[in-house]
Amino acid sequence: MKLKEVLMPALKLFFICVVSALLLAGTNALTKNKIAESSKKQEDEGKKIAFADAESFENADPVELASGKEVKVSVAKSGNGVIIGYVFTSTSKGYGGDVTVMTGVDKNGTVKKTVILSMSDETPGLGQNAGKDEFLNQFADKSGKFTFTKNGGNGNEIQGVTSASFTSKAVIESVNDALDAFAALLKQEG
Questions:
Q1: How many whole angstroms separate alpha carbon 114 and alpha carbon 138?
Q2: Looking at residue 152, what DSSP letter applies?
Q3: Which residues does 34 contact at the CB level (< 8 Å), separation at least 6?
Q4: Neighbouring C-beta atoms of residue 103, cutoff 10 Å
Q5: Is 130 exposed, middle or buried (0-12, 13-18, 19+ CB in 10 A)?
Q6: Which residues of the chain have pLDDT under 50?
Q7: pTM (2 d.p.)
Q8: pLDDT at residue 122, as a whole number
Q9: Interior/surface letters 144-181, b for 16+ CB within 10 angstroms, e for the rest
Q10: Are 165 and 129 in contact (CB under 8 A)?
Q11: CA–CA distance from 88 to each of 8, 31, 60, 140 (Å)?
């Protein structure tokens, strides 16, 4: 084999790789701010859904749980600035990837509303159904630890989405993490 026969294809591949890398870097630079802006907007909208009674939200220091997980905290305030509750953002492992959940909790430790922020890797038509109100509304107006059940949830038993046990359990775990973070905040304050 001649050196030219080996070197020319290698140089062409190298050139293609360099051009591709530069194009990807350029695309990332152009879209980075828009993606961050879109993510912040989605998070702000999620807070308003998770705690509809709040007029404003103030980010607080995250809470680290005994499990090592970190839960983001936003303080929900009334129009005159009084703290009326919290919105916690927590992530758990679902079937296809991470499931990020926002949970509104009032000052008594009662769940106001639960919102799925992201679960894009969950199975369409199965795991994605965990984002529907009929599943998420099971948490509303309840406090204490939640558990998973396959059939007929009662009290703090949450009936999982049919054929989506992993996703259902991930949402339940995230809500429980939010309640653990709430308990940790109470401990810090008291």
A1: 9
A2: -
A3: none
A4: 28
A5: buried
A6: none
A7: 0.77
A8: 57
A9: eebeeeeeebeebbbbbbeebebbbbbbbbbbbbbbbb
A10: no
A11: 57, 28, 10, 14
